[in-house]
Design brief:
Four Helix Bundle (Hemerythrin (Met), subunit A), Rossmann fold, seven-stranded mixed beta sheet, four-stranded mixed beta sheet, 16 strands, 40% helix, binds 5-S-methyl-1-O-phosphono-5-thio-D-ribulose
Length: 348
C-alpha cells in the first residue's frame, strides 16, 4: 500500500508525487512552511491527503512554539493555520482539518501548552488512521454498485496516493476485486498535471487491477462504443445541494455519462462535504501556473507568451450525479440533507 504521508520521528515525511512514476522519492519536512510548500507544489495532493498534511503541518508548527499560556499559544499558532489554509483553496479538507485541530485545542485548553503539543501530534496521526478506515468503508458501500464484468471510468487520481493510503474512488474498485469481481478500469490521463496517467494507472497496476489509459478526449468515443458501465470519481468539495468540485474535466465526463446513460458516482468522505455552502457556485476554484499547460515534463509545447487558462478544478452540477458514496452510505444528491441530519443527530 502506498504511504503518501507519515509522521516519522517528529517530522512529516511525504512521497514526492510530482515525480511519480519516474522517480520514487520522499521529502522530509522539518517545519510547517515546508509542509505548506509541499501542498502548493503538489508533492502531496488529493483532497484527503492534503487534509492530513494540513493537520500534520499544524502539529509540526506547534512543536516550535514557546508560549507561557494557552492564549499566547493560540495566538502564535494563527500564522501556522493561515499559512496552511492559503496553500490550496478548493479542497475543503484543509479547512476541515484545521478546524478539527483548533476545536480540539479549545476543548483541552486546561492541559497546558506542552501537553497540547503532544495532543496535536496524536490527533494528526488519528486523522490519517481514520481516513484509511473511512476509505475502506466507502469501498464496501461502493462495491455494491459494481457488477462482475463492469468497466469503470475514472478521472484524476482519487486513490491511495490522494488519501491516507487506500483511496476514495478506487476504494470500491479494490473492494470489488477483493470480492472476486472481474472488473476493468479506464483511467483518463487528466491533463494538465496527468494524475491519471502518472498516478492512477500506476496504483491500479500495483494492485493488479486491469487498467487502460486514455487521453481525456477519448472518453466520449469509448462510451459511444458501449465500453463503459459506470464512472466513479473523487471530489475536493461537495456543496449542500450535491454539486461537486473535482479535477478539471470531471464536468465534461459527467455530461458524457448523462448522454450515454452511464451512472456517474462520486466517492466522498464526510471530510470533503461542505454543508456550509448551499451550492457549487460558492466553491473557490484554484487557478494554477500557466506552465502546467504550456509545458509537458519541463518541455515547452506551446508558443511563447500564448494566453493560457488553467483552472485546476470544475464544478459538476448535482443533476449529473447519480449518487454520492460516503462512509455513512450512498446518497442521491437531493438526499444529502438526510446525511446532514444523520451527522447532526447521530441517534436518529
Ligand atoms: O490537483 P489534485 O491532484 O490535488 O486534484 C485531486 C483531485 O481532483 C481528486 O480527484 C480529489 O482531490 C479527490 S482525492 C480522493
Amino acid at each position: 500500500m502506498f504511504k503518501p504521508i507519515e509522521w516519522v520521528n517528529g517530522k512529516v515525511r511525504m512521497l514526492d508525487q510530482s515525480r511519480l512514476p519516474v522517480k520514487v522519492s520522499y521529502i522530509t519536512c522539518n517545519d510547517y512552511q515546508k509542509v505548506a510548500e509541499g501542498i502548493k507544489k503538489l508533492w502531496i495532493r488529493g483532497a484527503p491527503a492534503i487534509g492530513i498534511a494540513a493537520a500534520m503541518g499544524v502539529a509540526l508548527g506547534a512543536q516550535k512554539i514557546k508560549a507561557k499560556n494557552f492564549d499566547e499559544f493560540m495566538r502564535r499558532l494563527e500564522p501556522v493555520f493561515s499559512a496552511i489554509l492559503s496553500t490550496r483553496p478548493t479542497a475543503v479538507n484543509i479547512a476541515w482539518a484545521i478546524k478539527r485541530m483548533r476545536n480540539l485545542l479549545l476543548s483541552k485548553k486546561t492541559l497546558g501548552v506542552e501537553k497540547l503539543k503532544t495532543v496535536l501530534i496524536e490527533e494528526a496521526k488519528k486523522i490519517l488512521k481514520e481516513d484509511i478506515e473511512v476509505n475502506k468503508t466507502i469501498g464496501r458501500y461502493g462495491e455494491k454498485l459494481i457488477k462482475s464484468g463492469d468497466t469503470i471510468i475514472t478521472h484524476c487520481n482519487a486513490g491511495a496516493l490522494a488519501t491516507g493510503g487506500y483511496g476514495t474512488a478506487t476504494g470500491p474498485m479494490r473492494t470489488a476485486v477483493a470480492e472476486g469481481k472481474n472488473i476493468q478500469v479506464i483511467a483518463d490521463e487528466t491533463r494538465p498535471v496527468l494524475q491519471g496517467a502518472r498516478l492512477t494507472a500506476c496504483e491500479l497496476m500495483n494492485d493488479k487491477i486491469p487498467v487502460t489509459l486514455i487521453t481525456d478526449n477519448m472518453a466520449g468515443a469509448i462510451m459511444k462504443n458501449g465500453e463503459i458501465n459506470l464512472a466513479i470519481v473523487g471530489t475536493d468539495r461537495v456543496a449542500r445541494n450535491g454539486d461537486v468540485a473535482n479535477k478539471i474535466g470531471t464536468y465534461s465526463l459527467a455530461i458524457l455519462c448523462k448522454e450515454h446513460k452511464i451512472p456517474f458516482y462520486v466517492a466522498a468522505p464526510l471530510s470533503s462535504i461542505d454543508f456550509s455552502i448551499p451550492s457549487g457556485e460558492f466553491i473557490p476554484i484554484e487557478e494554477r501556473d500557466s506552465k502546467e499547460v504550456t509545458h509537458i515534463a519541463g518541455k515547452r509545447i506551446a508558443p511563447l507568451n500564448v494566453k493560457v487558462r488553467n483552472p485546476a478544478f470544475d464544478v459538476t452540477p448535482a443533476k449529473y450525479i447519480t449518487a454520492i458514496i460516503t462512509e455513512k452510505g450512498v446518497f442521491k444528491p437531493k438526499d444529502l440533507y438526510k446525511l446532514q441530519r444523520q451527522i447532526q443527530n447521530p441517534k436518529h
